[in-house]
Amino acid sequence: MQVSTIGIDLAKNVFQVHGLDAHGKVVLVRQLRRKQVLDFFGKLPALLVGMEACATAHHWARELMKLRRGCSTSCATAIPAETVSTTTTVARRSQLRMPTHL
């Protein structure tokens, strides 16, 4: 399992993480508590982390960049229209197409 890109859904206490390999296949799905986030990313090799722009996205991007992780934020309109109607955020985030560049 070689994760090359991670999408993270930022929340107040529990974050949802989806890891993709180089072919775009989901190879990691995990929930992390706030205090586990930096430890989790610190153990991973260099990769791109994508997140939806929100009030705390810039804070987390700065913290992850300290760990030498590439970060990208995108607005909610980057989510494909057919996934917005789903009932769970987890389903939306797993289908969010993160940019592959920094």
Tell me briefly what this model is.
This protein is of the alpha/beta class and 102 residues long. It contains four helices and five strands, in the order E-E-E-H-E-H-E-H-H.
- The rough form would be described as globular
- For the record, the CATH architecture stands as 2-Layer Sandwich
Distance between the termini: 22 Å
Main sheet strand line-up: 3-2-1-4-5
What low-confidence regions span 5 or more consecutive residues with pLDDT below 50? 82-88, 97-102
Radius of gyration from CA coordinates:
13 Å
Q: Which sequence of SSEs, written as H and E, runs from N to C?
A: EEEHEHEHH
- Mean pLDDT comes to 78
Q: Quick one: how many beta strands? A: 5
Strand coverage percent: 25-35%
Structural class: alpha/beta
Under CATH, the homologous superfamily reads ATPase, nucleotide binding domain
Q: Quickly count the helices.
A: 4
Largest sheet: 5 strands, mixed
CATH topology (level 3) name: Nucleotidyltransferase, domain 5
What is the highest CATH level, the class? Alpha Beta
The percentage helix is 25-40%
- What is the oligomeric state here? single chain
The number of domains = 1
